[in-house]
Fold:
Amino acid sequence: MTATAHSPAPVLCGLGTWLPPHVVTNEDLSRELDTSDEWIRSRTGIGRRHVVQPGEATSDLAVEAGRRALKSAGLDTVDMVIVATTTPDRQCPATAPLVASRLGLGTVPAFDVGAVCTGFLYALATAAGFLAAGTARTVLVVGADTYSTILDPADRSARAIFGDGAGAVVVRAGRADEPGAFGPVELASDGSGCDLIMVPSGGSRDPFRAATAQQADPFFRMQGKKVFRSAVERMAQSSLTVAERFGWSVDDIDLLVAHQANIRIMHGVADSVGLPRSRCHVHLDRVGNTAAASIPLALADAVESGRLTPGARVLTTAFGGGLTWGAAALRWPDISPA
Ligand code: COA
Structure:
């Protein structure tokens, strides 16, 4: 059956964000590590990032963003909560049930999705599947991460890049011709690259045991250069696939909201797709790479800065550990981020 304008489709209808108040500038980092504002800005485009303080966890950020997304959608409740995160409050249990409970959503189904920096798109696609199956009419999708809690304090490369934050959207069952309709979301993975981005210890491959605790490496590790090349290629590929599926030419894309990994990666994607760099929205200068939170945070920033207006054709794409990547496209709905 061919999809028509009236076909059922998932529709984005609310957006909320939250950043922890504490800010770490490049100057702050250079007082602690062998780095400089000049190096970080020229290699990444990042000027500062928000970082949680002791006592603040991923669920705290997710709850604030979720509350705001519900307000933006004008809803008190939803049928399901999905949290995309690589930094759950604890390895067990998932973070989503706690978020649902703290939002007062009762006993709704709630679970986490782990696809690292592509997590938000994977969660969005998962929500779309539940809406299509009729299992839910509304879903709260949250991307929340606190990478500062898993970074090696001595790793100047990772500490320059990552920031903490949360962004959330509400999606509902609707029609393909409505503003906000998205999907199908393009998703892909390549597990042969799983070593490029990982936390080596603490999982079943290298569990913490008292006898080996000294050798364990509990920190996030990334082979930046290899990730860089793969990220540009894969995000560009997914973006073109999604644009074609929507019947959009590259010229039709009003704004590219790519995962905010590194300004050079984002510009590389724009160049590969054939889109002017000026149509690539940049938010990472103020927040860094916030992993699963990066796309909803950047979307909200684009709306607040007047770059994303109702009806605009927006394309989002992400790449992350796994390896995983994907893209989604939509006509922007008339919503106010909260
Ligand atoms: N300050 C100063 N020097 C730094 C530094 C910092 N914060 N971080 C790394 N360096 C140094 C390295 O130690 C290396 O020094 P050496 O040549 O003496 O060994 C040098 O800079 C070049 O390092 P390299 O890793 O080749 O730099 P790069 O241009 O590839 O930039 C990243 C490093 C991490 C910024 C870049 O690879 C990147 O952004 N990768 C993608 C990461 C990402 O976004 N991943 C998220 C998942 S999508």
Q: What stands out?
A: The longest strand covers residues 8-18. The domain at 182-331 is CATH 3.40.47.10 (Peroxisomal Thiolase; Chain A, domain 1). The chain has a mean pLDDT of 96. DSSP finds ten helices and 13 strands in the chain.
